[in-house]
Design a protein that fits this description.
single chain; 209 residues; alpha/beta; 5-stranded parallel β-sheet; 10 helices; 59% helix
Length: 209
Amino acid sequence: MLLVGLTGGIGVGKSLVTARLREKGAVVIDADEIAREVVAPGSKVLERLVERFGEKILDSKGHLDRKKLAEEAFGDQEALKDLNAITHPAIGAEIAKRIEEQRDTDRLVIVDAALLVESGREGFDKLVVVAARPQTQLERLVTYRRMDPQEAERRIASQAPLEDKIAKADIVIWNEGTIEELMRRVDEVWEQLSSEAKTYTRRDTRRED
């Protein structure tokens, strides 16, 4: 197994990258999907979120309203810190479980998480950063997600600066051009990483022997 962390700021096109890599054969562990699972109605995580932020973060059926939670947490450093302290341990435990399930394979395993740099998470064989200029991020959030410009700016500012992410990256995938250009770059990265995954696994096997 080659364990790859994949990260990038909001609006950079990270979901397009992970979808392509999954299509090519990578095992993708999506932290955002797991984040939705751990806050299911009746979960301890959801109970703690309601204790901290109030029932206003729930919809009419008792499910977490992620937009309302974001309005409460983003832009307020203390609130964001509390949100992360409540959710990150549960998300991290589930990610670790899914990684362990792939431990003895020759698969390329990708942990897709927006806050890998911010959380200081380590233990990856490679770190891939999907990147775009902050102005590009803002334009995409406003145009395609219909996000209020001020809210979009707050969301971008709540994440680590682009230069911090790039400084820690082994591979950078820039998404400033067309979809076709992005897909070509992702295919190049897939070829590199999938080849390394098989080599890495063979090397581990020889060490065990």
